[in-house]
User: Fold SAM-dependent methyltransferase from Rhizobium chutanense.
Amino acid sequence: MNSMNTNYSIRDEIRDFWSERADSFDQSVGHEIFSEEERKGWQRLIRKHLGEGQGRPLLDLACGTAVISHLMHDVGFKVTGLDWSDAMLAQARAKAKKRGTDIRFVSGDAENTMEPRDSYDAITNRHLVWTLVDPASAFKEWFSVLKPGGRVLIVDGNMGRETWVKGLQKFWTKLTGRPAASHMSPEMMARHQKIRSRVHFSKQMPAEAIVDLLREAGFVDIVVDRKLGDIHWAQARKMPFLRGLERLVQERFAICARKPG
Assistant:
């Protein structure tokens, strides 16, 4: 990380943060999938909002190590995974080679994909929107890349919202002097919070705020789906107790929207 360089922007910091996490990314519950129950939950969600792939082209933004890319491929989409972290893409390509899948991977910025206009039937992303510096411009970009009638499926959550479990975690730390279990080191947690303080959704990110920006970008038929309990329960069972409890009470959601046509 070269934070002393005056040209080093928040976008560079986000890219470098996730690049440094690439090697261990798939070790975390909530990133990679660790049970067939969770996999079935994801497939249910995908089919509910996007239907069967049937060879239709799909762009998975901020694909990371290609966890969502492979879910989309398994449902039958012709998948392109885009990420601006070369380290993440290296992991994604290695995984695709091992699994024998034909997913195409490209290096690019989710806010300015450089992909052809009107070229994808669907766009997906998971835990991307909270990192966007300019989500309004990003949504307009996604709108232009979709074919008329194409859909975007966003999976994210209002992680900045305080929950009673977070309060319990803070009490536990104060009582025992030990922080709650985390998949990140204290140094990485501090960097994560620094990044979060500078992006558009620096505090809370309710689904309604995303819906407003999608509507401004031209999307219609916007649906907020909060019925992700099968996914979250499967994840929670693989987590330490307090982290799993937090996963169950967080405000997480999927949002699907359509480009007219």
